[in-house]
Design a protein that fits this description.
- With 346 residues, this protein is an alpha+beta fold.
- It has 3 domains: 6-80, no CATH class; 81-259, Alpha-Beta Plaits (2-Layer Sandwich); 261-346.
- It has helices at 21-24, 31-48, 57-80, 90-107, 124-129, 134-150, 179-190, 214-222, 229-247, 266-283, 288-299, 308-311, 317-320, 324-339; strands spanning 112-121, 158-163, 166-175, 205-213, 252-254.
- Strand 2 (158-163) and strand 3 (166-175) form a beta hairpin.
- Helix 2 crosses helix 3 and helix 10 (266-283) packs across helix 14 (324-339).
């Protein structure tokens, strides 16, 4: 028998029969939830042992193991599920991505990868603001979108609603040569969703995607970026989505280091600032530096050091009270400082 896990050591109320972490958490790959199952099992056994029939302790172990697992699984599902659409939540998306990474590293081959797609619905605000459609119709469109995707992807994949009309798709163990075709297939599926104008029109989405290989993962781990893999891949896919909003909405494009928006005119800077601020405000209104650093990186070599003013450019309490328009103007102002003032069109 393997060594008992330290996480389920005997408690003061009485010895808990030995059980290994592997036996207790055999169906849970995530470290965080394995710890929660162990802790819940300890709590349940601590409460039940004083009243247990000594002849039936083994049965009690099995029952408490099942109960602990079921309770944590239920909590995980609630935390990882978007209540409106039934898609994964933002947290669920990160969990699904990490799960896909683990599968790729364990059983994947060199020509396979994990893909994350970030996209949102074009002109969604107009749907929300339309008195003939409004929020109920907007909600129905998002539910329809999620349903269409869920019916076409595998169990190992996932679709998530991160907030508003912002969605992600995680695809596990995909042949690198198939990625572009699969993304196009998914976009075509999404483009069949009715926009509920009763005219036969369908929705359109704009997004970006990023694929990561086993070699990419190994490289990031060597650089000590294990905890940043999901965030970095998601941000790069999101950057491609914002880029495409300006350069040709209605499509989903691959992230590439050489994606550089044309910021030569004031109009382009306003357009860029508006789109990146709107997306960023959905996820972290408290970090202006996140926007500016990614924008800077898009225009320079990755090895170039960040300017000091961008490293420390966090939003203060006063900045958080700014209106959206003031926020956009502030970003445009910083772009003007960085690239020189661009004249407004007359």
């Amino acid at each position: 028998m393997s060594e008992p896990t330290r996480g389920v050591a005997p408690l003061e109320s009485g010895p808990i029969p030995e059980i290994t972490e592997g036996e207790l958490c055999e169906k849970e790959p995530n470290r965080e939830f394995r710890k929660k199952i162990i802790q819940r099992y300890k709590e349940l056994m601590d409460a039940a042992l004083p009243f247990a029939d000594p002849k039936k302790v083994n049965g009690l172990v099995a029952s408490m193991r099942e109960l602990a697992t079921a309770q944590i699984e239920s909590e995980k599902k609630r935390a990882h599920t978007d209540p409106l659409t039934g898609a994964l939540s933002r947290e669920g998306c990160a969990y699904k991505f990490e799960e896909a990474i683990d599968i790729l590293e364990t059983v994947g081959v060199d020509d396979e990868c994990v893909v994350i797609i970030e996209f949102d619905i074009d002109k969604f605000k107009a749907i929300n603001d339309d008195p003939n459609r409004g929020h109920d119709v907007a909600d129905t469109i998002m539910k329809d979108l999620v349903k269409e995707i869920q019916e076409r992807i595998r169990h190992s994949d996932g679709v998530a609603r991160k907030g508003g009309d912002e969605f992600s798709i995680v695809l596990s163990n995909v042949k690198q040569s198939r990625v572009a075709d699969l993304v196009l297939e998914l976009q075509n599926i999404i483009n069949t969703v009715d926009d509920h104008t009763h005219t036969g029109e369908t929705i359109a989405v704009t997004g970006g995607y990023r694929m990561i290989t086993k070699a990419d993962i190994a490289h990031m781990r060597q650089e000590g970026k294990t905890e940043q893999i999901y965030e970095e891949m998601s941000n790069q896919a999101d950057f491609a989505a914002v880029y495409q909003k300006i350069n040709g909405p209605g499509t989903i494009v691959a992230y590439a280091p050489d994606l550089k928006p044309d910021l030569s005119s004031w109009e382009n800077r306003m357009d860029w600032a508006t789109k990146i601020v709107d997306r960023e405000l959905k996820r972290r209104t408290g970090e202006l530096n996140g926007i500016l650093q990614r924008l800077y990186r898009s225009q320079h070599n990755e090895e170039d050091p960040l300017p000091e003013e961008l490293i420390d450019a966090e939003l203060s309490a006063d900045a958080l009270s700014k209106t959206r328009d003031e926020f956009i103007e502030a970003v445009v102002g910083l772009l003007n400082v960085q690239y020189g003032t661009a004249p407004k069109a007359k």
